[in-house]
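Example 5.3 — TRAP transporter substrate-binding protein DctP
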Amino acid sequence: MKKYSFILLLLAVILSGCGTEDTSSGSDTSNDTTKLKVVSFLPMDHQFTKDIVPMWLEKVAEETNGAIELEWIGGPESIPTEEQFDAVTNGLVDIGFNVSSYYGHIMPESHSLHLSPFQPWEERENGYYDYMNGLYDQYNMVYLGRWLGPNPFYFWTNKEIGSLSDLEGLKIRSNPTYHDILTAIKANPVEVVPGDVYTSLERNMVDGFGFPLLGPNDSGWTEVTKFIIDEPFLNQNGTILINKDVYSSLSTDLQETLVNLTAEFEKEMVDYFNKVNEEEWKAIEEAGLQKIELSEEDSEKFQNIVKEVKWEAMKETAPDHYEELRNLLDK
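Solution (predicted structure tokens):
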């Protein structure tokens, strides 16, 4: 009986020890990793997103040592572009790669991103970045930073332009970002969704379009376009936004890591896009497009029109923040 009791006791100790070891070593990685969903305003295979978004995702995985795991669920095919800003606000998705062109009607102050003459790191130093973060806070978001690098807009045409006045009366494919600019130079803005631009050009429904340097050649639009006016205007307005509740749930260290790695990413994007833009100019010329340059007088006139039109719009749509934003950017 004593021998039997001893064996039972020994088995109990062994089983107890196994249970203790299993509990301490079998930590659930789901409890140690924060999994977040990311959406982009453009499809996953678009020239602006296919390389850039993964670069940021990899940077996050590396610099947080896997503490944050990101899933890029897609672009408009997953959540319509015009609904993505609200989706981040409401927590339907955690992080959005978006542009203010698609949420400026909700947050008009975001259009000031276009008007900044500064590099992203300069905006972090002069107070603009912090001021914008205070505005995004009202929409339950944290503004991590920019993501499109140097990417201004251009006007592309099928009419040879000798001067700024030659744009008068032309039908130019537009979007809300530069409707007012086209109106100010007496051109006719025509809203056409990107998927219909090629056909609109081919059938002469429009005489040209507005768009950044990257995209038109990749989308085939240069096949039905003859000229690009080498007069870049407005700053890029790509933003990385994270739901505030999600951000607040992260440790202070992870919050700081996200902000700091995005600041580094902004500098990488400038170098990246400078190189890509240089290559794109060559591709555009090889596609047969001719570059048009405005005279010094017309160039100055056009840039002044862009600046005043946009600041006037800001004054009307965001009167409470107009003065401070202009003080921060119009130096």
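Remark. The CA atoms of residues 4 and 57 lie 60 Å apart.
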